[in-house]
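In this section we walk through a basic example: taking a raw amino acid sequence and producing a predicted 3D structure, encoded as discrete structure tokens. The instruction is simple. Fold the sequence below.
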Amino acid sequence: MKRRILLFKYLLPLFCIGMASCSEQPATPTYDLVIYGGTSSGIVAAIQATKMGKTAIVIEPSATIGGLSTGGLGATDIGNKQAIGGISREFYERIAQKYANPKAWKFEKREAYIKNDTATSMWTFEPKVAKEVFADMVKEYNIDVVYNERLDLSKNANKENGKIISIEMESGNKYYGKIFIDATYEGDLLAKSNISYTIGREPNSKYNETLSGVQTALGYYHQFPDGVDPYIVKGDANSGLLPNVNAAIAKDGTGDDKVQAFCFRMCITDVPENQILVDKPKDYKELEYELLFRAIEAGYKGPFFIMSMMPNRKTDSNNKGPFSTDYIGKNYDYPDGDYKTREAIVKAHEVYQKGLLWTLGNHPRVPAEIREEYIKWGLPKDEYTTNGHWTPQLYIREARRMVSDFVMTEHHCTQDSISADQSIGMGAYTMDSHHTQRYIDQNGFVKNEGDVEVGGFPPYPISYKAIVPNEKECTNLLVPVCLSASHMAFGSIRMEPVFMILGQSAATAACIAIDQDIAVQKVPYPELKKQLKKDKQVL
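The resulting token sequence is shown next.
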């Protein structure tokens, strides 16, 4: 008997030669759902799959789950909060429950912060509390999460007959699944699966839009005052341009491959006993802040970034003003970059923002009244304790965007002429792009370009068709974060509560596809809608 087993063992590989079904024998379990990216969207997708009786694994490239929701974005960006349902709303309800405990208020009294004590959801929070909530949910649903596992970018996903069979990590580990979900901000899995995507801004003509492409005419937000000279030596073009200033700019509405600016959503505090002041960075370059000094000299008095207050005297600090936390023009190579390229960009942003904090609080060219205000702020001792109290998550506002058979555009956001069908959730935020570049205007002054803030429209449906690729490219991949949308539509959709909503809806569709053994493109929408409504999604 033993001899027969051994004979079978050695003959099986020979038998499998030429047989597609045997082309790769998994050495690890095959999951129902393999979710690449432990962002808020990825974690919620895994929870939904588990609730529907499926096996799921979350593969997180870093050491932390939650993405921006645990990475400093505590001031939840969303318009009409009634559009938020399902597990996404449960997350914010759990945040409120955490802060109902008096022990949560160490550096501030609850009554000093909470204005509506009857609210069941809470939309502002500290990073560590968001991390606790996700950790609780992962534990309760027994979610399988692996950390510090990155896709091997030198290899494509293993596909057979239009289906992903497995993906391989840098470690050599392979993960097998029936359905795959790319929940990353970068869209690495969709790219390595040879799915069509784009980077940058489409020309207005592409989708008959008005807000995509170059936008100098809308550049009145976060703009330099007149009079800011672009040259290293004022008035001397031969001295060269200041860092990150372009000499020329394309015509409005022209498309390009430039990416709206990134920043860290800084968590800082003015509580001395919970504070570490930021030192001048080792790689500090004063010339990087010359535009700041010149803006002040031209009359700009602030603000220099947003100070949205979170509990316990902490902030979610975001970009505001002509020279702020956005490192404009320094992220173009990020979306398609390898890990080394991205790590360099992330580090450069950290040095730049820490340098900004130090400059505002210490540099003699900053007026004393400004220095006195900003020297009060430092990094919280009780946040990001394994990363020098600085968030490890750069705000990747936009990277790759899938291009599928259906593309969400500004017209779907405003619903001026069309409305998306097959709704799997609602968008409810202003169409918002941060600045993309700096240039010299016709008067010879430095200006920022790319900021668009157009709102005033009601919540709008996001189509299921926007999270599935072209069927000819792949039949078992869902993309709830880097979904199929134009630059401006993505600028409205790209909010953490919405990413959670789309993650839950993607997992729901995946479970139906598994049960019926069909392509994700063939999921019957009436069945999907019925399950989503049952799970309290707002459609």
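Looking at the output, two observations stand out. The two ends are 60 Å apart (CA to CA). The longest strand covers residues 174-182. In the next section we compare this with other chains.
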